[in-house]
Amino acid sequence: TECYEELAPRYEASNPEMALEFYSKLKNQIKVKELATRLMRQAEDEDRFKSAAQYAAIIGNKKTEHIFKEAHNLLS
Questions:
Q1: How far lies 63's CA from each of 6, 68, 69, in Å?
Q2: Which of 3, 21, 45, 63 has the most crowded CB, counting CB atoms within 10 A?
Q3: Residue 58 contacts by C-beta under 8 Å, 6 or more apart in sequence?
Q4: In angstroms, rounded to a whole number, what is the distance separating the alpha carbons of residues 39 and 31?
């Protein structure tokens, strides 16, 4: 646990997916939501709608998850 607490903030910029995993293991829901929201927006900006849908699911936003899934299906 102590290792995750140290590493998670360090990975936020260089490897945010890994930081998200560490925060999940720490059960830090505030940081999980914050980081997943940032990753979702980044994926949306890069037209990676499947990834954006996965991050929306982590956040718990079913409506946004559905929209991104539909966008992915439409553009695939």
A1: 34, 9, 10
A2: 21
A3: 20, 32, 33, 36
A4: 12
- pLDDT tens by residue, 37-56: 999 999 999 999 999 999 99
Say if residues 3 and 10 touch (Cβ distance below 8 Å): no
Total residues belonging to the chain:
76
CA 56 to chain centre: 7
What token pair was written down for 53? 């849908």
Q: What is the mean pLDDT of residues 24-46?
A: 97
Token pair recorded at residue 13: 């910029």
